[in-house]
Automatic annotation (TrEMBL):
InterPro entries for this protein: Aminotrans_IV (IPR001544), Aminotransferase-like (IPR036038), BCAT-like_C (IPR043132), BCAT-like_N (IPR043131)
Designated name of the protein: Class IV aminotransferase
Classification via SUPFAM superfamilies: D-aminoacid aminotransferase-like PLP-dependent enzymes
Pfam family, one: Aminotran_4
Domain of life: Bacteria
NCBIfam families from the UniProt entry: PRK09266.1
Length: 262
């Protein structure tokens, strides 16, 4: 079956049920998963994210087992065991509607990333919501200026997150995540749990553009994986091969969760 493949509340998308996301517009939220052999890392984080955001936006929760069955159903219907999957949740308030979108799998580029700082922070940053116009706008702006992504910052150049990533810095002792409202990405959540076992301290601290000289390396994370950062604006970072090896190992050795336990 040709991808992308879409199911809404367990039914293949058609003109009737596509009215739900069409009419509810940008009010909703989602999570993005990379599925390999019918498994995903950090599944519990994805399910918790969906349930909490659904409760906050609509009132009722979203049962995790229902979500697992909907993802498994969509994967089976399109014959995909490796895929990039997104689960969107729209209204109405009394019956939030999940939509599963299955696309071809994607991985994080292995090349170093360059980030252009921009004066913007996502509203309601703890929710992976659908209001992504500004992120897309600044992301395109960054690309036109020769960067790979935008870096979102607040007043005084306080660093928050990438347009579609979390960012971490290395001060020679600790992995430092910016202490600013941002989305807790699932890859970041998995790493925070696992880095201590690989000899890396993980902390949250205010990071500013003016203070980047305090850090010798940086990397970004999202559902596609992890990549080193080579530049923020004109500030260059060397790739710390040993740091990246340990960070990658912490993530790569994280357990895979079966989506459909049978």
């Amino acid at each position: 079956m040709t991808l992308p493949y879409v199911e809404i509340d367990g039914r293949p998308a058609d003109a009737e049920n596509l009215l739900v996301p069409t009419l509810t517009g940008a009010y909703g939220h989602f999570t993005a998963l990379q599925v390999r052999a019918g498994r995903v890392r950090g599944l519990a984080h994805h399910l918790t994210r969906l349930d909490r955001a659904t409760r906050e936006l609509f009132g009722p929760g979203l049962d995790g087992e229902r979500v697992r069955s909907l993802i498994a159903r969509a994967l089976t219907a399109c014959g995909a065991s490796d895929a990039a999957v997104r689960v969107y949740v729209y209204g109405p308030d009394d019956a939030p509607t999940p939509m599963v979108v299955v696309r071809e799998p994607v991985d994080m580029p292995s090349t170093t990333q360059s980030l252009l700082s921009v004066p913007y922070e996502r509203p309601v940053a703890h929710i992976k919501h659908l209001g992504g116009f500004a992120q897309a706008y600044y992301g395109r702006l960054a690309e036109r200026q020769g960067f790979t992504e935008a870096l979102l910052t607040g007043p005084g150049g306080v660093v928050a997150e990438g347009a579609v990533t979390n960012i971490a810095f290395w001060d020679g002792t600790s992995v430092v995540w910016p202490d600013r409202p941002s989305l807790l990405g699932v890859t970041k959540a998995v790493l925070e749990e696992r880095l201590p076992a690989y000899g890396l301290t993980s902390v949250h601290r205010e990071v500013t553009l003016d203070g980047l000289d305090a850090y010798s390396a940086a990397f970004v994370t999202n559902s596609r994986g992890i990549a080193p950062v080579g530049r923020v604006d004109e500030r260059e970072f060397a790739v710390d091969a040993e740091l990246m090896k340990r960070v990658w190992r912490a993530f790569e050795e994280a357990p895979w969760d079966v989506i459909d336990p049978g």
